[in-house]
Design brief:
The protein has 161 residues and is mostly beta strands. It contains 3 helices and 12 strands, in the order E-E-H-E-E-E-H-E-H-E-E-E-E-E-E. The strands form 2 sheets. It has a 6-stranded antiparallel barrel. A 6-stranded mixed β-sheet has the order 10-9-8-7-12-11.
Length: 161
C-alpha cells in the first residue's frame, strides 16, 4: 500500500514567463515548503528549486518547469509529500492529516462519527465530524470538548448539533 500523501499546497496558475507558479498554501508557511527537495505534483515528481513569499501568494519554481505554458499546465494540481517527509512532532502536537478518518466516540464508547475535515478560521482548530446518519457537524478541537486519546477522538455529545 502506498504511503499516505499530505497536501501542502495547490497550484493556482503561472507567474511570469519563466515557469514559476502561484500557490494556495495549506502548509504552515512558504518557508516550511523549502525543507522538501522533491514534491509530488499530480502524477509527477518535481524538484523544488525555490519558494518565495510573493506578497501573500507564495511563488514556487520547479527544476523541470521552464516556461509559462508548462507552468499553466500545472494549474489545479496538488503539491504533496509523503507523510514520512514531515518533521517529527513534539508532545501534544498533531498534523491535521493525522486526524482525518479518526473515529469519534463519547466517553462511554458510543460511536459518534468520523473526522472528515479539520478547519481553522483563526480561533483554533474545528473538527468536521460525519455522524452515523450521514449528517455533518463541526466541533471545536479543545480539551473537554474533543480530545485526542489513543488513536480516536473523545467528543462531548452535548456539542454535536
Amino acid at each position: 500500500m502506498p504511503e499516505q500523501q499530505v497536501t501542502l499546497a495547490a497550484i493556482t496558475g503561472a507567474h511570469g514567463i519563466g515557469g514559476e507558479v502561484r500557490l494556495k498554501l495549506f502548509a504552515e508557511s512558504a518557508e516550511s515548503l523549502q525543507r522538501h527537495q522533491t514534491v509530488q505534483v499530480g502524477e509527477r515528481t518535481l524538484t523544488l528549486k525555490s519558494v518565495k513569499a510573493g506578497g501573500g501568494t507564495p511563488i514556487a519554481r520547479f527544476a523541470e518547469i521552464n516556461d509559462r505554458t508548462s507552468a499553466e499546465g500545472l494549474r489545479g494540481q496538488l503539491l504533496t509529500v509523503p507523510r514520512s517527509a514531515l518533521p517529527p512532532l513534539e508532545e501534544g502536537e498533531y498534523y491535521h492529516a493525522d486526524l482525518i478518518g479518526l473515529r469519534c466516540e463519547s466517553a462511554e464508547g458510543e460511536a459518534l462519527g468520523t473526522v472528515v475535515a479539520v478547519e481553522n478560521f483563526g480561533a483554533g482548530d474545528i473538527l468536521e465530524i460525519e455522524k452515523p446518519d450521514g449528517k455533518r457537524t463541526m466541533v471545536p478541537f479543545r480539551d473537554g470538548i474533543a480530545d485526542l486519546q489513543g488513536g480516536k477522538i473523545t467528543v462531548d455529545p452535548v456539542f454535536l448539533a
